[in-house]
From TrEMBL:
Gene3D superfamilies: HAD superfamily/HAD-like (3.40.50.1000)
Protein name in the entry: Trehalose 6-phosphate phosphatase
Enzyme class label: hydrolase
Function noted in UniProt: Removes the phosphate from trehalose 6-phosphate to produce free trehalose. Trehalose accumulation in plant may improve abiotic stress tolerance.
GO terms assigned for molecular function: trehalose-phosphatase activity
Homology family: Belongs to the trehalose phosphatase family.
């Protein structure tokens, strides 16, 4: 297998790095019981990492805190300008409930495949991430959804943790932002291959992740409300219960640990800092992998629908736009820059949308069945 080195410039929230990306010319996805796919990776020199973290200077930390505030608003005032922004934003990202007929019309004759984020999508955002339980009503809705459509949960959480919340064996689960993927344990009527689905492209990072987890536990112990979560192939530092005046201190603590680990990168979500391996793998890559595993890699008759609320879901929204297939739905009460086509405001609206989708499919199948019976009856009654 040959590799070529491409120097690219990547701009994320605050980190501007010149990165060397090794791009494989071979297929990104292996067959299903897969050795981890050969994924592009990012290499960052220790000197460059220290320059970007700039722990002693404080400027980077201040910028990160500003970004943390922007992505994690604690309250929203109702002002005329915000109302105007909301109206303008809704014109470009209308409610998926209001546009339901348009959505189902676009999917006719195609196989819908559902991808669902967990926190903030199937369950509400709560102060204690260990208590982000989904309701029985939501679980029942997702169970019915999976009867009609291939369904995957794609989360930043550890895959086992997400499964313990959802408790549905018939689903696909992609944990650690898509770096830990496993197919249904009950088998799937949609999968065209009999091989089990398993993908863990960041396995080599496990010892490092465990090491950093222990270091972060010790380093953040002095910050009340901070919680470090080990998601197996990535780490989350939750600051939902941390006083805002302590955010700068927490960001500094996290960065002081990461300065010794140039193979890990720091990103952020809704009141959470995420530490991930520097490989080119995200929720968008997970979506593509699952479509390929289901046999829809190069199909024109597939209609993927991805519903999520976080920055990390944007990678999946972007993939759908680039493919020109299906669409993304952003779950948010406030205007956000997004690649999603539609919006829903909260998990309750997500559940209503999924219920309508199930009912629409059920009625469609009933109509098809009645039509088939009628046609068969007409054939029988026709004279030879």
């Amino acid at each position: 297998m040959t590799r070529q080195n491409v120097v690219a410039s990547e701009v994320t929230s605050d980190i501007n790095m010149a990165i060397a990306v090794a791009v494989s010319k071979s297929s990104m996805f292996a067959s299903a019981v897969q050795k981890p796919p050969a994924v592009p990776y990012i290499t960052i020199s220790r000197k460059k990492l220290l320059q970007n973290l700039e722990i002693s200077g404080g400027a980077r930390v201040t910028s990160w805190v500003d970004s943390m505030r922007a992505s994690s608003p604690t309250h929203h005032k109702s002002t005329p300008s915000l109302s105007d922004d909301q109206s303008s934003w809704m014109l470009h990202h209308p409610s998926a409930l209001d546009m339901f007929e348009e959505i189902t019309n676009a999917s006719k004759g195609k196989q819908i495949v559902m991808f669902l984020d967990y926190d903030g999508t199937l369950s509400p955002i709560v102060e204690d991430p260990d208590r982000a339980f989904m309701s029985d009503a939501m679980r029942a809705t997702v169970r019915k959804l999976a009867r009609y459509f291939p369904t995957a949960i794609v989360s930043g959480r550890c895959r086992d943790k997400v499964y313990s919340f959802v408790q549905l064996a018939e689903l696909y689960y992609a944990g650690s932002h898509g770096m830990d993927i496993k197919g249904p344990s009950k088998g799937s009527k949609y999968k065209k291959s009999i091989q089990p689905v398993l993908c863990q492209p960041a396995s080599e990072f496990l010892p490092m992740i465990d090491e950093v987890y222990k270091a972060l536990l010790e380093k953040t112990e002095s910050t009340p409300g901070a919680k470090v979560e080990n998601n197996k192939f990535c780490l989350s530092v939750h600051f939902r219960c941390v006083e805002e005046k302590k955010w700068s201190e927490l960001a500094q603590q996290v960065k002081s640990v990461l300065k010794d680990y140039p193979k890990l990168r720091l990103t952020q979500g809704r009141k959470v800092l995420e530490i991930r391996p520097t490989i080119k793998w995200d929720k968008g890559k997970a979506l593509e992998f699952l479509l390929e595993s289901l046999g829809y890699a190069n199909c024109t008759d597939v209609f993927p629908v991805y519903i999520g609320d976080d920055r990390t879901d944007e990678d999946a929204f972007k993939v759908l736009r680039e493919r020109g297939q299906g669409f993304g739905i952003l779950v948010s009460k406030i205007p956000k820059e997004t690649n999603a086509s539609y919006s829903l405001q909260e998990p309750t609206e997500v559940m209503n949308f999924l219920r309508r989708l199930v009912e629409w499919k059920r009625l469609s199948l009933r109509r098809q069945f009645r039509m088939r019976i009628r046609l068969e009856g007409m054939k029988v009654s026709l004279p030879n």
